[in-house]
Amino acid sequence: MKNITFGRTDTSIVGRWWWTVDRMLLTAILLLIVIGIILLMAAGPAAAGRINADPLHFVRRQFVFLPPALFVIFIVSLLSPQGVRRVALVAFATALLLLMIAPLTGPAIKGATRWVYIGGLSIQPSEFVKPAFAVVSAWMFSEGRMNPNFPGFRVCMVLYAMTAGLLIIQPDFGQTMVISAMWGVQFFLAGLPLILVVVLFALSLVGAVGAYMLLPHVQSRVDRFLNPESGDTYQIEKAMQAFRDGGFLGRGPGEGRVKELLPDSHTDFIFAVAGEEFGLILCLLVVGLFAFVVIRAMSRAMSRAMQENNLFVMIGVGGLTVQFGMQALVNMASSLHMMPTKGMTMPFVSYGGSSMLGLALGVGMMLALTRRHVGGVPGSPS
């Protein structure tokens, strides 16, 4: 069989995609997926044993979602900016509908109703609403800036209020925090008055204080962070032990012991598994990959936005990268006891089907919006 290669003059869909997509950005994302598989193979058997399942239960389930996720990344990354907007709009409307249904029909897990069962599959709508909201919001902001008669800012306010309100009802303050930070950055990138950014930041602080005062589970997490003796800190103590035991080089693949004691070692605390088995080296590599994705995507978006005078691309990629990077930051900071624990997956590394597919949608749109476009023709070789 001949090797499959793509010349710069290849005008096929795949050929144009290969020569216009940011291959360095794509490589970093694929590396995160590979690291996630390795860490899940380390943490999955122990997690499966706690529910009396087959040792490879979580590994197999993750592999079920991996091919569709890769397919979504590829297909969505082929789209033009117009196509990205259309896909995001459909995904946003669908995710909002599922967010409305979840509290009514979804099962209560740890006091929250965040899942909807469709055809035997459990779906977490919030994982899909985040990337879709980032693009739809960017669309409205950019249209409002280009056309003063278009109520882009007001539309964005309504969409944000709807999304945040539905997330709070579940309740899911972690995702609300990510959505709020993402929207705040887009607000700033859209060039809206700085005083409004300050007002929004102040309102966020008021909301955080209100959540602490009114919601016992939020208060408990903050109190345990500030004063570990005030409540159960079992998981964070074990996570910190994992980092200490791993040291610089780690104990070796499969040699970790703390994962057998951490209930959420395959999801919220998978960074601790990385620290114990592979040491500081892998942890720094993971941090570096996430930082590279955020910086690379934003630099590409800003370059393209200036070349094409396309504000939508810059705001859209800005929102998608903030979501991607902040989700990783919250997961790692929680594991390192740098902030109150919050159940949030590490992008492409933690176990979770909805998380992987939602992130695939977001990354696909990120790759589509950062592709090179020559002469106004999407996907033209350069």
The average pLDDT score comes to 86
Number of helices: 13
The fraction of residues in strands falls at: under 5%
**What is the CA–CA distance across the termini?**
28 Å
- Residue windows where pLDDT falls under 50 for at least 5 positions: 374-382
Brief summary:
The chain is mostly helical.
Structural summary, described in words:
By secondary structure, the chain is mainly alpha-helical. The protein has one domain. Helix content is 69%, strand content 3%. It contains 13 helices and four strands. The strands form two sheets. It has a two-stranded antiparallel ribbon with strand order 1-2. The chain has a two-stranded antiparallel ribbon with strand order 3-4. It starts with 12 loop residues before the first helix and ends with a strand. The relative contact order is 0.16. The C terminus is likely disordered. Its EC number is 2.4.99.28. GO terms for molecular function: lipid-linked peptidoglycan transporter activity; peptidoglycan glycosyltransferase activity. It is a multi-pass membrane protein. Belongs to the SEDS family. FtsW subfamily.
Task: Name its key features.
about 375 residues, mainly alpha, two-stranded antiparallel sheet, 4 strands, about 70% helix, disordered C terminus
Describe how the helices and strands are arranged.
Elements: H1 13-20, H2 23-50, H3 57-77, H4 81-105, E1 116-118, E2 121-123, H5 126-146, H6 152-169, H7 173-189, H8 194-214, H9 216-226, H10 234-246, H11 270-308, H12 311-335, H13 353-369, E3 373-374, E4 377-378
Antiparallel strand pairs: 1-2, 3-4
Helix pairs in contact: 2-3, 2-11, 3-13, 4-5, 4-6, 5-6, 5-7, 5-12, 5-13, 6-7, 7-8, 7-12, 8-9, 10-11, 11-12, 12-13
